[in-house]
From TrEMBL:
InterPro entries, alphabetized: Rossmann-like_a/b/a_fold, Universal_stress_UspA, UspA
Organism whose genome encodes this protein: Mycolicibacterium mucogenicum (Mycobacterium mucogenicum)
Lineage, highest ranks first: Bacteria, Bacillati, Actinomycetota, Actinomycetes, Mycobacteriales
UniProt domain UspA: residue ranges: 9-135
Protein's name in the database: UspA domain-containing protein
Superkingdom of origin organism: Bacteria
Family: Belongs to the universal stress protein A family.
Amino acid sequence: MIEIHSGDSVVVGIDGSTAAVYAAHWAVAEAIARDVPLRLVSCVQGPQRSDRMVIEYARTSLRAAHAAIDDTAAHVKVETAVVVGDPTAALISESRHAAMVCVGSVGIGRFAKALLGSTAAGVAESAACPAAVVRSYAPHRRSPAGSILVEVNDWEENHDVFAAAVAEAQLRGRPVVAVGVCPPETGMSGRQELLRRCAVWQDLYPDVYITAVPITTSFVRFLQTTSEPISLVVVGAREAAKLVKIIGSHADANSDNPSVLVARA
């Protein structure tokens, strides 16, 4: 199996929402693959940070998320922590020693920016480790047969991004769809380079089915129009700022509610 980002734990932000529990469920496989604990973190901030009811709500949210993980009978160690401070800053701090940090979100169409939430956007853009924004995940039912979608480009980080997509495909038993923007002016050269790169990865990991898809438009535009069922979109840190467009646009055309993984070396 391909080497994946190592760290002390896989961190999940817990705020009492169903989206956060979805994120915790999704993160179980990540923790098991790395043989590290699943760390559930709830944040208490502002003037209410010493309020006993607020603190008890945070603890109750953690207990509920912990119980939801226990119901899956997954063999994973679960840690819980209540931390004081802004959720975005706290999770970014946690990410410095984490293998991955995960948050839940429900971006839908033009409302994506509001529903994505500042915490999810902030963590995706600034985390020190890979960051996953999990849209929907139900461990007790069969997962949608969606692909792992990754953009192939010339940025230096793209090798790590593609590696992350292959690792997720191995972990979750999904094919990889590698999308490369090949404008008409590049002729066949762009398409041939995309096919070459995909062939290299296919040779290295024959257990993962990889499909190359050359396009003449932008990656985000492809997400807006494709009917390809997608379970996860893998992007690089440079593309984290596009998270709202990626989650919102694809939700308009695809009901599988794909999650997004921001890969980092």
